[in-house]
Specification:
Elements: E1 2-5, E2 10-17, E3 23-31, E4 48-50, E5 67-71, E6 74-87, E7 90-104, E8 114-117, H1 123-130, E9 137-142, E10 152-155, E11 163-171, E12 180-182, E13 189-191, H2 193-200, E14 224-226, E15 233-235, H3 237-240, E16 244-250, E17 255-263
Parallel strand pairs: 2-8, 3-7, 12-15, 13-14
Antiparallel strand pairs: 1-2, 1-6, 3-8, 4-6, 5-6, 6-7, 9-10, 9-16, 11-17, 16-17
Organism: Dentiscutata erythropus
GO molecular function: aspartic-type endopeptidase activity
Family: Belongs to the peptidase A1 family.
């Protein structure tokens, strides 16, 4: 998804990730960022480096605090920054984001510069609402089912033309009570080892393989894999491509929920 950061704006292409909560893009100081667009704070008139994600002002003689964010598929060393963000034609001022100094993220496609985390407590949409740019803290997706299909994202509402029937809602329990992680950052879905094995045992002539394309030899690979957290699922794009999904904060931003509906297969 294309976004712009700074004044004047600097362009980036980011992966939308419902399984994490921060927006990050590479900084000019970033190592292992070959071929990616990099954020140059020296060219941004609005740039403000801060020591914590709590919007404390940066004190010039104290360097920004560098921390490391962990992901299931890698890690990012970063500084916290504030500047303008443009997303879908909407301009958010004083938006918190991360300028990454080092990226160790093998799972990140070369097509993306960084990651736009849309998960639990994401600050961008709180800012959009508080600045009067959207009416609801809501983001909705229809992911393309193949390379020829278009993906749709709606910010601040949902698009009824893209789904049919009722939306089924589930309350989000928070990071300490995970039963299933709805994660658009993963192509596959993951289940507990025992659950995955029991499901695949019901498929005639199934066999386990190491995750490697050269071992498939024309065989079909399952849309989910073993290796998820004990007792929990990670529902990636193999699931999300088959539903319309809505993520919402409500009741004065104290509650989170996710809704799913059947796709309108006649929509673009």
């Amino acid at each position: 998804m294309p976004i712009k950061i700074g004044d004047p704006p600097q362009a980036f292409n980011v992966m939308l990730d419902t399984g994490s909560g921060y927006l990050w893009i590479p900084a000019t100081s970033c190592s292992r960022c070959k071929g990616k667009n990099k954020y140059d704070a020296s060219k941004d008139k609005k740039s403000a480096c801060i020591r914590t994600p709590l919007h404390n002002p940066y004190i010039p003689h104290i360097p920004c605090k560098i921390k490391t964010s962990g992901y299931i598929g890698g890690s990012v060393s970063r500084n916290y920054n504030l500047s303008d963000l443009i997303i879908g034609g909407l301009k958010v001022t004083n938006q918190l984001f991360i300028a990454a100094n080092n990226i160790n993220f093998p799972e990140l496609s070369s097509a993306y510069d960084g990651i736009f985390g849309l998960g639990y407590g994401q600050q961008t949409f709180i800012s959009l609402k508080s600045q009067g740019l959207i009416d609801f803290i809501q983001i909705a997706f229809k992911f393309g089912r193949d390379r020829e299909s278009k993906s749709h994202i709606t910010v601040g509402d949902n698009n009824p033309s893209l789904f049919v029937g009722k939306v089924t809602w589930s309350n989000a329990l928070g990071p300490k009570n995970i039963r299933a992680l709805i994660d658009s950052g993963y192509s596959y879905s993951f289940a507990d080892n025992n659950i995955a094995k029991n499901i695949y045992k019901k498929i005639p002539n199934y066999k386990d393989i190491v995750r490697s394309n050269d071992q498939l030899n024309g065989l079909c690979a399952g849309g989910f894999q073993s290796g998820g957290p004990s007792g929990a699922w990670i529902l990636g794009l193999t699931f999300l491509k088959n539903v319309y999904s809505i993520f919402e904060q409500y009741q004065n931003r104290n509650r989170f929920r996710v809704g799913f509906a059947s796709l309108n297969m006649n929509s673009e």
